From TrEMBL:
Chain segments annotated as transmembrane: 95-118
Name of the protein in its database record: Late embryogenesis abundant protein LEA-2 subgroup domain-containing protein
Keywords from the UniProt entry: Membrane, Transmembrane, Transmembrane helix
Superkingdom, natural source: Eukaryota
UniProt xrefs under InterPro entries: NDR1-like
Origin species: Eucalyptus globulus
Length: 278
């Protein structure tokens, strides 16, 4: 148990100077009073060993903390680590937001590209006009015919265009027998457009079927004749700035005319186009 010893009666934190001095004013001095140290051999020393009581006058106690303490308090109130953490958190949020935007854009682009490629269509071929010209001279034994065919090539695609190259071939057959051949012209075709293409087919030197000979001799009589036109056109598809690989578009048309000659009309036809990779 700690035992405290009271100070002497005259210790009140102030000392009066009885001596001279200017005006006989009192001077304050801070005094430290040490309690008497008890005898080590006494029984009280077992409970209060090395115990001192320090008395400081109240007017000497500082109420304002030193500047060092103010800096310490300021650091505790505004630590630097939370700022770094908040900055790191904000940067992580920004990166996450940018990553989400990039993912959304990539998914959107893939969706658009896939929808475009899934909706790609082949060009359509139609026979608009068919004229047969007889170039046979009186002294020639074999019939020489030239077939003028006007094809209508249509691009039904909204986003893709075509570039038809040289090397295309066109053939004409009657009752599964080839009677003329020619070349397909090269041209560029934009999206959602149609183009009329003139094809010149030169007849072979073989004998013509009787139905065709009869129609050629009798220009007034209308004899319905059905022909098969085969088109093999190499082309390349282009979507915006993206160029596809070269392909071959093979079109087959079955068409019927009322007669052979300048005034022949196409009565009906059925065409289909297939794409074959080169």
């Amino acid at each position: 148990m700690e035992e405290r010893f009271p100070p002497p009666p005259h210790t009140n934190g102030r000392q009066h100077d009885s001596g001279g001095g200017s005006g006989g004013s009192d001077h304050r001095e801070a005094s430290l009073e040490l309690a008497p140290v008890p005898n080590p051999d006494s029984p009280e020393h077992a409970f209060a060993s090395d115990t001192y009581v320090v008395q400081i006058p109240k007017d000497q106690i500082y109420r304002v903390p030193p500047p060092e303490n103010a800096l310490i308090v300021k650091r505790h109130r505004k630590p630097t680590e939370p700022k770094k953490r908040s900055f790191c958190c904000s940067s992580c949020c920004c990166w996450l937001f940018l990553a989400i935007i990039v993912i959304v854009l990539v998914v959107g682009i893939l969706a658009i590209v896939s929808s475009v490629f899934l909706k790609l269509k082949n060009p359509n071929f139609h026979v608009d006009h068919f004229v047969v010209k007889d170039l046979t001279k009186s002294h020639d034994k074999n019939t020489k015919l030239v077939y003028d065919v006007k094809l209508k090539v249509e691009n039904p695609n909204t986003y893709s265009s075509f570039t038809y190259k040289q090397g295309g071939a066109v053939s004409l057959a009657f009752k599964q027998k080839a009677i003329a051949t020619g070349k397909f012209v090269a041209f560029d075709q934009d999206r959602k457009t149609s183009k009329a293409v003139d094809i010149v087919l030169k007849g072979s030197n073989t004998a013509l079927p009787k139905e065709m000979q009869k129609s050629l001799r009798s220009k007034k009589t209308k004899n319905h004749l059905t022909f098969a036109l085969h088109v093999d056109a190499p082309a390349r598809r282009k979507i915006g700035i993206i160029k596809g690989s070269s392909s071959r578009f093979v079109a087959s048309c079955q068409f019927t005319v009322d007669k052979l000659g300048k005034d022949a009309r196409v009565l009906s036809q059925k065409c289909q186009t297939e794409r074959k990779d080169s």
